[in-house]
Amino acid sequence: MVIEQFFDGIELSVFIITDGTNYALLPEAKDYKRIGEGDTGLNTGGMGAISPVPFADALFMSKVRERIIEPTVLGLKSENINYQGIISLG
Fold first, then answer.
1. Segment 12-30, tens digit of pLDDT
2. What SS3 class is residue 45?
3. What sign for the dihedral angle of Cα 22, 15, 11, 59?
4. What digits encode the pLDDT tens for the residues 42-71?
5. Taking the C-alpha atoms of 33, 57, 62 and 48 in order, what is their torsion angle to the nearest 10 degrees?
6. Cα-flanking dihedrals φ and ψ of residue 53, to 5°?
7. From CA 20, how far away is CA 22, in angstroms rounded?
């Protein structure tokens, strides 16, 4: 996927396990990629990860399920992609 626009803001990773129809949501995580305040240092490759993520409250995660997870699982099924395993959504 190529994204041609820079999106500024917070991010987190969400992981699900799916059998191709149903899914189970694993705990979300957030990593801090750069050393230093305000992302001023070198990239650490995600060495500073936390879970649970403080801003990922019930309302936020409900939106993630409705807008991202469920359409992804349904999309795989509608394309006849029999995927069973872990999906990482960042």
1. 899 999 999 999 999 999 8
2. strand
3. positive
4. 767 666 778 899 999 999 999 999 999 999
5. 20
6. -90, 125
7. 6
Q: Would the pLDDT of 3 be above 70?
A: no
Neighbours of 53 (CB within 10 A): 19
Write out the two tokens for 87: 């999906």
Task: Give the pair of three-digit tokens for residue 11.
Answer: 């991010």
CB 42 within 8 A of CB 35: yes
Report yes or no: 61 and 28 within 8 Å, Cβ to Cβ. yes
Which residues, in sequence order, are CB contacts of 76 under 8 Å at separation 6+? 18, 20, 83
- Please, is 62 exposed, middle or buried when counting C-beta atoms within 10 Å of its C-beta (0-12, 13-18, 19+)? exposed
Residue 90 confidence class, pLDDT cut points 50, 70, 90 = confident
pTM of the model: 0.76
